[in-house]
Amino acid sequence: MKTMVKQPNSDPPYSLHDAYILKLQVEGDTLRLITQYGYVCTTPPCNQVEGDVEITGIDWDFSCVYVMEYQGVLCGNYGSFTGRKMTVADFLREYSEATLDIMDETYGYHQVKLDGFLNVGERCLEFQLDICYAGEFRYLLKE
Predict the structure, then answer these.
(1) What is the rounded distance in angstroms from the CA atom of residue 94 to the CA atom of residue 56?
(2) pTM for this prediction
């Protein structure tokens, strides 16, 4: 019997944890996350860097967004919620003025999941953005 052990992917060079996304912009099969103040470099000294993120080669048929609104508890806590799963296009139409606070990111084979809070005026919702892509995950650093 032969045992194969999958080695974990190396840590990404930047973390989107606590990144504040002002806008999601689509051009063809590319999604750009426009940040307010960038994200954190994961190698010492772990400084904040300014920049946006671009994901290319997105398969829109296998990408979606979950939006959850909590019932009787503060957003993000344990408890009841209502929500729905929607296409990225529908999400962008319905929440065009919303901003996103990314709390967690998960990377897999040709996929990324971004979780956090969706700010819609005075309302705070929770979101999970699931992106399936065959292109590149690009960190666009501002000089």
Answers:
(1) 23
(2) 0.89
Compute the chain's Rg from CA coordinates: 16
How does pLDDT run along the chain (143 residues), one tens digit per residue?
766 555 555 578 899 999 999 999 999 999 999 999 999 999 898 899 999 999 999 999 999 999 999 999 888 899 999 999 999 999 999 999 999 999 999 998 899 999 999 999 999 999 999 999 999 999 999 97
Q: What DSSP state is assigned to residue 56?
A: -
Q: How far apart are CA 119 and CA 121, in angstroms?
A: 6
Under DSSP, is residue 137 helix (H, G, I), strand (E, B) or coil?
strand
Q: How far apart are CA 33 and CA 21, in angstroms?
A: 6
Q: Are 113 and 137 contacting, i.e. CB atoms less than 8 angstroms apart?
A: no
Amino acid letter at 72? Answer: G
Token pair of 49, please? 């860097």
Provide the Cα torsion 22, 86, 17, 137; round to 10°: -90
Place of tokens 């005026």: 121
Phi, psi (deg, nearest 5) at residue 89: -60, -45
